[in-house]
């Protein structure tokens, strides 16, 4: 290749980079307010972005815990082709793109060819989203010609790092799992250096992207094209039918989803919101509720369910239960001395928590009340007894006087 041709090719590559801002493709090497996303760079490392959207379907003001998942990324050589710069006021500009070379030498987050992005429960979501870098290091490649080289990065299905049930809460993306990374190289003396990057889902500037970022359809994040983790809420209300109640309260055991390190929002009545946690296989929470008490649990993964068990109360029969106003049936566990209902889940209605109401009633309101209730009516019973004794005494006195 003669020097004049080399110089011309270098000028062509640089021209592509200069023209690109007017077409607004994303150069994912930085964000300069004066360059519409284009920064010329000699850095050999490109940082792409990976977004994980985190949302609670029943309460937009609540941000659930980030799930423990790992996404894998692999870089390979792309095929020769073109990149079209779409411009509204000018004709399209088409640039020739070479096939990538030595893609197996590209490091992804420090690992050759394939690397990982790990999300954990310690990651705090900002405005409902956690963003991490995918660092692509091209320093291991020696370029021998100027031009635009295409590489392809592919996102693999995520893997779960604990026992969380995420199949429905975090669907695997089914579309747009690859990005083209076009590397701009020009001659610099006797060497060839990287001068910039273009990242796109397609072969033209309409597919611009900064990596694997969230995509929206009709204003909502599209779970087929983005990683979206969704949770739901449950409320449990304690009711007692009739005037009799148990002063000691009603004890419940709630079995939460299996998660080695789960944290869920928790609120009782109008008390300050707090959390309940699951640790190392211990995923139960106990609470005592009085008549008309209510608790709310938030951040439960969509698709996962919870179980509710109430301790037997002497003198009370099997409680009734409704889930979102639909009558259900509890089961009696004589051996464990509990009344149980399993499988409370999401109602698939946004902004509407799953409402569970459990109502207790005595076996017979006219019988001697159970322990805990006796003290509620004992004073009245004593007054009735005393009144009866006085009436009998008065009647006897009148008879003797007669």
From TrEMBL:
One family name in Pfam for this protein: DUF7601
Transmembrane region(s): 373-395
Regions annotated as coiled coil: none
Domain (DUF7601) ranges: 233-335
Secretion signal, residue range per the UniProt entry: 1-28
Matches recorded under Gene3D superfamilies: 2.60.40.3050, Collagen-binding surface protein Cna, B-type domain
Keywords for the protein's UniProt record, in alphabetical order: Membrane, Signal, Transmembrane, Transmembrane helix
Domain of life: Bacteria
Keyword Transmembrane: yes
Protein name as it appears in the record: DUF7601 domain-containing protein
Organism: Faecalicoccus pleomorphus
Classification of source organism: Bacteria, Bacillati, Bacillota, Erysipelotrichia, Erysipelotrichales
């Amino acid at each position: 290749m003669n020097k004049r041709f080399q110089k011309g090719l270098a000028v062509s590559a640089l021209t592509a980079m200069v023209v690109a801002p007017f077409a607004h493709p994303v150069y994912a090497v930085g964000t300069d307010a004066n360059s519409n996303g284009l920064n010329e760079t000699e850095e050999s490392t490109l940082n792409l972005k990976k977004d994980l959207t985190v949302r609670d379907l029943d309460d937009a003001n609540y941000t659930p815990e980030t799930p423990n998942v790992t996404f894998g990324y692999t870089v390979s050589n792309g095929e020769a082709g073109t990149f079209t710069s779409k411009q509204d006021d000018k004709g399209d500009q088409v640039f020739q793109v070479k096939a990538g070379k030595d893609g197996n030498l590209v490091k992804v987050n420090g690992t050759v060819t394939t690397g990982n992005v790990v999300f954990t429960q310690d990651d705090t979501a900002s405005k409902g989203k956690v963003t991490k870098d995918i660092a692509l290091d091209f320093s291991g490649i020696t370029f021998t010609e100027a031009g635009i080289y295409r590489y392809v990065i592919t996102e693999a299905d995520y893997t779960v790092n604990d026992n969380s049930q995420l199949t429905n809460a975090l669907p695997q993306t089914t579309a747009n799992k690859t990005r083209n990374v076009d590397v701009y190289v020009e001659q610099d003396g006797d060497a060839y250096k990287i001068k910039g990057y273009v990242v796109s889902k397609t072969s033209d500037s309409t597919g611009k992207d900064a990596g694997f970022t969230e995509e929206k359809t009709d204003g909502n994040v599209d779970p087929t094209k983005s990683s979206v983790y969704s949770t739901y809420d449950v409320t449990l209300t304690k009711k007692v039918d009739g005037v009799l109640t148990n002063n000691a309260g009603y004890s419940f055991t709630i079995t939460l989803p299996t998660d080695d390190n789960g944290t869920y929002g928790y609120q009782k009545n109008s008390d300050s919101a707090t959390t309940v946690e699951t640790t190392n296989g211990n995923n139960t929470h106990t609470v005592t509720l009085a008549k008309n008490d209510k608790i709310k649990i938030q951040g439960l993964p969509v698709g996962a369910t919870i179980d509710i068990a109430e301790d037997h109360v002497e003198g009370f029969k099997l409680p009734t239960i409704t889930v979102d106003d639909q009558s259900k049936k509890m089961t009696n566990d004589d051996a464990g001395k509990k009344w149980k209902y399993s499988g409370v889940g999401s109602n698939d209605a946004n902004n509407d928590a799953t409402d569970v109401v459990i109502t207790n009633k005595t076996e017979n309101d006219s019988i001697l009340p159970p322990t805990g209730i006796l003290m509620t009516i004992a004073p009245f019973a004593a007054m009735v007894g005393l009144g009866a004794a006085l009436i009998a005494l008065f009647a006897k006195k009148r008879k003797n006087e007669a």
